[in-house]
Write a structure and sequence with these properties.
The chain is an alpha/beta fold. It has two domains: about 120 residues, 3-Layer(aba) Sandwich (Rossmann fold); about 50 residues, no CATH class. It has five helices and nine strands.
């Protein structure tokens, strides 16, 4: 898939202490036609400053950094920038780490070894074409769509129970205000 030259590059903050992981993920995104500029972040100060300097479209985060509590970063983002997708990309396979991140409001928690799932997730998360928004008609049951809730955005689906659910864990979504196809 070739990148659309007319599209603006996706601005991603990446909380990661391994520069090779940052390069690998950036390379994978670009290989799949996702134009992006990734800024590696190692400290809380740099993280908060990045929001003052430039617009942020998406945040990637390892689950552990030696000098920065990434769950605190997630909570800060949800408080001050609740609509920015925050995706953990980690080698940590602990169910508790994943559960804690999702409970704190993470958009997704992916394994570093599953970059195909990352590409699928990013493709859906950054798709924000107003011409495709259609709040008057519901998607087919079980179809993954971007869902806008009152205070956050995530990948979700319309269930057989006639309720919106988060794609990551099937929990019921609160106050859905819009949806659109990827």
């Amino acid at each position: 898939m070739e990148a659309d030259k007319n599209k603006r590059a996706l601005r991603i903050l990446h909380l990661e202490d391994d520069p090779l992981d940052v390069e690998l993920i950036e390379s994978e995104l670009k290989e799949h036609g996702i134009s992006c500029i990734i800024t590696p972040i190692y400290t809380r100060e740099a993280f908060e400053a990045a929001f003052q300097e430039d617009r942020v479209d998406l945040i990637f985060s390892d689950s552990n950094l030696p000098c920065f509590d990434t769950l605190s970063a997630l909570k800060w983002v949800r408080e001050f920038h609740p609509l920015i997708p925050f995706v953990f990309i980690s080698g940590n396979r602990s169910p508790k780490a994943k559960s804690d991140a999702l409970a704190a409001g993470a958009t997704d928690f992916l394994d570093k070894s599953d970059l195909k799932r990352l590409i699928d997730s990013v493709s859906v998360l950054v798709k924000d074409d107003p011409s495709q928004k259609n709040p008057t008609r519901l998607p087919a049951v079980g179809t993954p769509v971007m869902v806008q809730c009152k205070e956050f955005r995530c990948l979700g689906y319309w269930g057989n129970d006639r309720k919106w659910h988060a794609y990551k864990d099937s929990s019921e979504l609160p106050e859905v205000t819009n949806w659109w196809l990827p």
